[in-house]
Amino acid sequence: MSPSVERGRNLPVRFHVSPVDCLRNPPYDGTMSEQFVNPNIGALTFDEVVKEIAREMHRDPRADYDVFVGTDSSTGGDTVDFVRAIVLHKRGKGGRYFWSRQREGKSPSLRLRIWREALLSFELAQRLLDALSSSTLLQFNLEIHVDIGKNGSTRELINEVVGMIVGSGFDVKIKPDAVAATSVADKYT
């Protein structure tokens, strides 16, 4: 993967994590056509989402913005629905969100499904950072929100998943602070 640029510094992106290598679907290759949904606007392409976010940030350039990316999943039959969310939070003033759904074959384990959620969020955050960096000079904080926490069966994955994301240069939040995954994406799974 190519290096990302965050606020003027290069962050090398290396991905050598064995559970991710086990996942069936390849990383985003630039050709996937995906549709996002905003409850007020309707269906949007990824490029339209980027334009909406940049337009919103330019409306009030002095505000402090956070961009959160998260994924949640649900299983049904032989498939898994992954819902990814992008949240633009204008501190003290609310926010907007966009979500997309992706259906895949059932993961053989909860561990691989959580890794797939983290990988989908990581890839989307990388794309979003690259696109927003070329669309706006405004400052914003970008975080990846993962659907794991200190309680429950996912607690064993915290060090691995958080380590991979932090090691790739992104901030990360887990439950209960991972609102993009646990509130927004979860709403549509």
Short description:
This protein is α/β, with parallel strands linked by helices and 189 residues long.
Q: Which helices and strands appear, and what pairs or packs with what?
A:
Blueprint: E1 4-6, E2 9-11, H1 18-21, E3 35-38, E4 42-45, H2 46-59, E5 65-76, E6 79-90, E7 94-105, H3 110-135, E8 141-145, H4 158-167, E9 171-173, H5 179-187
Parallel strand pairs: 5-8, 8-9
Antiparallel strand pairs: 1-2, 3-4, 5-6, 6-7
Task: Describe the protein in words.
- The chain is an alpha/beta fold and 189 residues long.
- The strands form three sheets. A five-stranded mixed beta sheet has the order 7-6-5-8-9. It has a two-stranded antiparallel ribbon with strand order 1-2. The chain has a two-stranded antiparallel sheet with strand order 3-4.
- The protein contains five helices and nine strands; from the N terminus they run E-E-H-E-E-H-E-E-E-H-E-H-E-H.
- Helix content is 33%, strand content 31%.
- Mean pLDDT is 84; it is low at 1-32.
- It has helices at 18-21, 46-59, 110-135, 158-167, 179-187, and strands at 4-6, 9-11, 35-38, 42-45, 65-76, 79-90, 94-105, 141-145, 171-173.
Distance between the termini: 29 Å
Task: Note poorly predicted spans.
Answer: 1-32
| Radius of gyration, taken over Cα atoms and rounded to an integer in Å | 16 Å
User: Structural class of the helices, strands and pairings?
Assistant: alpha/beta
Q: Percent helix among the residues?
A: 25-40%
Q: What characteristic shape results from the CA principal axes?
A: globular
Q: Give the neighbour order of strands across the main sheet.
A: 7-6-5-8-9
H-E order: EEHEEHEEEHEHEH
β-strand percent reads 25-35%
Work out the number of β strands: 9
With helices defined by DSSP (H or I, 4 residues minimum), what is the helix count? 5
Query: Mean of residue pLDDT?
Result: 84
Mind summarizing the main beta sheet? Answer: 5 strands, mixed
